[in-house]
């Protein structure tokens, strides 16, 4: 507390050197002090988990003053901030990333080493916060890190699930789900903010009150309240002073026990009510790209949205005594339809709680809100039954109806006699049971609607929402995804990062477009040799994981051919499996055939209720079993399914890959982000012209990308003209033979008809056109083989990918969002500034 000239007392964030000193000794001292005071242990009795907690707290000590200063700076400078609302944040482990972004990774390594401890081992003690399903959740995490690195004021808002995405075990080739109790060891990276808890209403009814001045107001009464308790996680910028906040809401019963119920001796109901309300943030729904219709899911969505909107308005009113400038101070981004109810909730708060007129409230809501669509899959588009909405959120439904009434009036003005168009556009889907279309609510309530890659954004306009595009073409835009180079290169591939920094300095870590400078070394033999040596070392690390889990050491000279992503038929893991079987049959027939050895590596979870995807996992494992134990094949083909694919495993697999499989049916994968991470780590892509593959190929050069398959318009054309898979099976002996082998039960001697459903789907429907793309895929894979056996040619392609991948940094994506949707400007943090 410093007395100022004008007599006022100023608060300055102090940092006492011993506590946050940046020398190895200081850090070592802090770790020992936390071991003692925080964990109640000394070095002799400390477990690796204790050391992990101690160094995590010591690291946290070194960011807290930045965190506080960031908040104060934004408040003081009235900085506009983005609030990224997402039901998923797949943030991965925090310690290594935070040490790196604080610039003290090596310091930590040294100070632990000094005590005979290995940072690498300690890092393994951290459990992955699996608060997401896949790409959408990880994208939100990459975005938060880029926002902080680019010094933009930002809040991430989501749910603090007690159980994240399930842990996947493979038992006898089948996926088995285990609860992911990720908090069982505590979490040093979160800070509860009980004082900012919010009450959220459910159920009840709405009553209208007419006031003496004739005005009417709506009141949502007899509700059941659940408390949302915020837990804050710091999001550090890369080597700057910015620390933004990820605020995740946890549900708590509003009152411990409903004593009146309790006193009536209905103990069970008392406990049930408590458990019921706290079940809201209990578990993440494990569906990727398929809408979950359960009432608890709608409760989860409204819960975190209502908490977040209340928090946003509370903070705004603390600074301003008007809400008129809300859109100048806040940008709200809806990460898919999961938080779309925010449009109606913001309206409710502005009208019912802030007494703002409907029209004004609507202008504020639209101006403040943006919506991102991440998928075209019809089954992923969320719509909720009106009766469920009525029961759970009666006031919100009323507001949605009024939004829709006014919207359809706007449609009527433009297309007076087009009832069919009104029916298509309506937020309410007519039918025996009416439904609320959440994507429609999001578009109507937003000033911006974007897709996540050029092709996808185009298909959003032409396929998914043509009527809305007709209505508001100016709202639709594209923001091609990106990934943070801090986690997905600097952290997961330190050797390659060093080789780059040695030659082009470390500017690339902040601005990935600087990677083009490495192209000057394309013909540099030393660099080329280093690129190969680094890949081999990373393959070795991956091979160790495979050996420890599957008991065999993959051949490091083999092509590490990797497909890791959620299991979904449109991602076509089955096509990859068909190629493996065809290759196997070829090798059996021509044992002398001279092909490069391959290690096929799969990983990915299937939604627990998605039986076909689970059957594909079983097929891959059964095929692996047969081929891996076939003496005729030796190690020329090895197949492995690595269980429990998550962010941490990806950080080991991706740097060790030679081939990145991005083989979805064109028009189905909105973007993909794994494709970007692989190319950034020196893998070459085998892919279709789908999602961001198209832009990756444009950037790295067609000659450095193994392309195959039908284009999106060809897929639509063929489907339109009655696609018949048999037409392709008859013309492809390899494909037919592979299908016959599966159908024969060769890979499932214990249950010969196990995979009949897989073969039937391909022969009768082939929804994702594997048969149409099979031969071309086989051809592309043959090109991979040929190229791999020419290491100089391969290395050139790898360097071309590395040098031209800069576009796919989430920094570029975030800059575009900030300039074109959120109208945000950076707000650097000065630690000496006092307020
Ligand atoms: N939901 N969803 N969509 C996805 C992914 N499955 O999470 O979002 C990702 C992030 O936008 C996309 O990369 C991916 O193509 C798309 O399928």
Automatic annotation (TrEMBL):
Keywords of the record: Carbohydrate metabolism, Glycogen metabolism, Glycosyltransferase, Pyridoxal phosphate, Transferase
A Gene Ontology molecular function term of the record: glycogen phosphorylase activity
A Pfam family of this chain: Phosphorylase
Chain positions with N6-(pyridoxal phosphate)lysine modification: 677
Keyword presence, Ribosomal protein: no
Reactions accelerated catalytically: [(1->4)-alpha-D-glucosyl](n) + phosphate = [(1->4)-alpha-D-glucosyl](n-1) + alpha-D-glucose 1-phosphate
Keyword Amino-acid biosynthesis applies: no
EC number in record: 2.4.1.1
Named cofactor requirement(s): pyridoxal 5'-phosphate
Signal peptide span: none
InterPro entries in the record: Glycg_phsphrylas, Glyco_trans_35, Pyridoxal_P_attach_site
GO cellular component: cytoplasm
Alphabetical GO biological process terms: glycogen catabolic process
PANTHER family per the UniProt record, alphabetical: GLYCOGEN PHOSPHORYLASE (PTHR11468), GLYCOGEN PHOSPHORYLASE, LIVER FORM (PTHR11468:SF3)
Function: Phosphorylase is an important allosteric enzyme in carbohydrate metabolism. Enzymes from different sources differ in their regulatory mechanisms and in their natural substrates. However, all known phosphorylases share catalytic and structural properties. Allosteric enzyme that catalyzes the rate-limiting step in glycogen catabolism, the phosphorolytic cleavage of glycogen to produce glucose-1-phosphate, and plays a central role in maintaining cellular and organismal glucose homeostasis.
Family: Belongs to the glycogen phosphorylase family.
Name by which UniProt lists this protein: Alpha-1,4 glucan phosphorylase
High-level lineage: Bacteria, Deltaproteobacteria, Bradymonadales, Microvenatoraceae, Microvenator
């Amino acid at each position: 507390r410093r007395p100022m000239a004008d007599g006022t007392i100023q608060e300055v964030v102090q940092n006492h050197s011993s506590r946050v000193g940046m020398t190895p000794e200081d850090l070592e001292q802090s770790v020992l002090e936390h071991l003692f005071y925080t964990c109640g242990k000394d070095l002799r009795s400390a477990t690796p988990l204790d050391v992990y907690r101690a160094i995590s707290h010591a690291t946290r000590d070194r960011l807290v003053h930045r965190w506080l200063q960031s908040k104060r700076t934004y408040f003081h400078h009235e900085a506009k901030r983005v609030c990224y609302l997402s039901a998923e944040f797949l943030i991965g482990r925090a310690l290594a990333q935070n040490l790196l972004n604080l610039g003290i990774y090596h310091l930590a390594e040294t100070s632990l080493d000094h005590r005979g401890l290995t940072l690498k081992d300690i890092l393994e003690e951290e459990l992955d916060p699996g608060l997401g399903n896949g790409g959408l959740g990880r994208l939100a995490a990459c975005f938060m890190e880029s926002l902080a690195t680019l010094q933009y004021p930002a809040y991430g808002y989501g749910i603090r699930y007690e159980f994240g995405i399930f842990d996947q075990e493979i038992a006898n080739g089948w996926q088995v789900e285990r609860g992911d109790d990720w908090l069982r060891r505590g979490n040093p990276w979160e800070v509860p903010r009980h004082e900012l808890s919010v009450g959220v209403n459910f159920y009840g009814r709405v009553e209208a009150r007419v006031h003496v001045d004739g005005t009417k107001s709506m009141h949502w009464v007899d509700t059941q309240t659940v408390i949302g308790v915020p837990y804050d996680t710091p999001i550090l910028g890369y080597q700057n002073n910015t620390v933004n906040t990820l605020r995740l809401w946890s549900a708590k019963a509003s009152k411990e026990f409903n004593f009146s119920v309790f006193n009536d001796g209905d103990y069970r109901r008392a406990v049930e009510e408590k458990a019921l309300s706290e079940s809201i943030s209990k578990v993440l729904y494990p569906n990727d790209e398929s809408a979950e219709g359960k009432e608890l899911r709608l409760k989860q969505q409204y819960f975190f949205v209502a908490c977040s909107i209340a928090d946003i308005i509370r903070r705004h009113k603390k600074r301003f005594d008007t809400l008129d400038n809300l859109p100048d101070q806040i940008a709200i981004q809806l990460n898919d339809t999961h938080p779309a109810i925010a449009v109606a909730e913001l309206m409710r708060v502005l009208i019912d709680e802030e007494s703002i007129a409907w029209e004004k409230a609507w202008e504020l809501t639209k101006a403040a809100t943006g919506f991102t669509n991440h998928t075209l899959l019809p089954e992923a588009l969320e719509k909720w039954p009106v009766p469920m909405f009525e029961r759970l959120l009666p006031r919100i439904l009323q507001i949605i109806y009024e939004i829709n009434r006014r919207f359809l009036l706007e449609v009527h003005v433009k297309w007076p006699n087009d009832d069919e168009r009104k029916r298509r556009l309506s937020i309410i889907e007519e039918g025996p049971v009416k439904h609320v279309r959440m994507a429609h609510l999001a578009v109507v309530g937003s000033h911006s609607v974007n897709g996540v890659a050029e092709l996808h954004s185009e298909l959003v306009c032409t396929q998914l929402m043509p009527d809305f595009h007709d209505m508001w073409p100016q709202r639709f835009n594209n923001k091609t995804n990106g990934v943070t180079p801090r986690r997905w290169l600097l952290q997961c591939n330190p050797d390659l990062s060093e080789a780059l920094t040695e030659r082009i300095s470390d500017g690339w870590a902040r601005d990935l477009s600087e990677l083009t400078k490495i192209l000057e070394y394309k013909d540099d033999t030393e660099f080329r040799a280093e690129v190969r040596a680094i890949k081999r070392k990373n393959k070795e690390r991956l091979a160790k994981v495979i050996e420890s889990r599957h008991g065999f050491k993959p051949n490091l000279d083999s092509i590490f051919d990797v497909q890791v992503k959620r299991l979904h038929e449109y991602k076509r893991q089955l096509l990859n499996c068909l190629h493996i079987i065809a290759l196997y049959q070829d090798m059996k027939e021509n044992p002398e055939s001279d092909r490069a050895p391959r290690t096929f590596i799969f990983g990915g979870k299937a939604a627990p209720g998605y039986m076909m995807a689970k059957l594909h996992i079983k097929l891959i494992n059964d095929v692996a079993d047969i081929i891996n134990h076939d003496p005729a094949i030796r190690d020329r083909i090895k197949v492995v399914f690595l269980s429990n694919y998550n962010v941490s495993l990806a950080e080991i697999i991706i740097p060790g890959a030679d081939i990145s499989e991005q083989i979805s049916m064109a028009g189905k994968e909105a973007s993909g982000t794994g494709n970007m991470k692989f190319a950034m780590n020196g893998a070459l892509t085998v892919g279709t012209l789908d999602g961001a593959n198209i832009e990756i190929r444009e950037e790295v050069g067609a000659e450095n990308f193994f392309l195959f398959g039908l284009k999106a318009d060809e897929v639509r054309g063929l489907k339109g003209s009655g696609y018949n898979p048999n037409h392709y099976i008859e013309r492809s002996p390899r494909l037919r033979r592979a299908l016959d082998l599966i159908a024969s039960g060769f890979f499932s001697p214990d249950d010969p008809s196990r995979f009949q459903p897989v073969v039937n789907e391909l022969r009768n429907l082939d929804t994702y056109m594997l048969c149409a793309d099979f031969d071309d895929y086989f051809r592309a894979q043959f090109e991979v083989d040929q190229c791999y056996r020419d290491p100089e040619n391969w290395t050139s392609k790898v360097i071309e990918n590395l040098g031209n991948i800069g576009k796919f940094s989430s920094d570029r994506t975030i800059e575009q969002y900030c300039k074109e949707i959120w109208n945000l400007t950076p707000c650097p943090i000065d630690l000496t500034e006092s307020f």
